Amino acid sequence: MIASFFWAFVVGGLICVIGQIMLDFFKLTPAHTLTILVVSGAVLDGLGLYEPLIDFAGAGATVPITSFGNALVHGALAEAEKNGLVGIVTGIFEVTSAGISSAIIFGFLAALIFKPKG
């Protein structure tokens, strides 16, 4: 059990280190860095490499933003097998809808509670 915590920390930390290196050394904007990490997760899932990473690292691979790209492709491919081309679009929304909805709701609630500075 301790080993699973260790590997989750290491893998999640490495993903974050990669993002920080892109920001600091390559002088990429946060938007570019975010996009690269999401696309990387999508490509790794398309190649069948992200699921074994999740099995190995658990939350270390499911919490970072790369997991969002994984979820998009994973949902699209699963639904495409069942429903054809229409499944590609519905699969993307089906798998990611809970996370996106939560982000919108909690963002709205935070805006009600705290005074934004602008």
TrEMBL record:
InterPro entries according to UniProt: Spore_V_AE, SpoVA
Top-level taxon in the UniProt lineage: Bacteria
The keyword Transmembrane helix is assigned to this record: yes
Parts of the chain that traverse the membrane: 6-26, 56-73, 85-114
Keywords: Membrane, Transmembrane, Transmembrane helix
Pfam family, one: SpoVAC_SpoVAEB
Listed name of the protein: Stage V sporulation protein AE
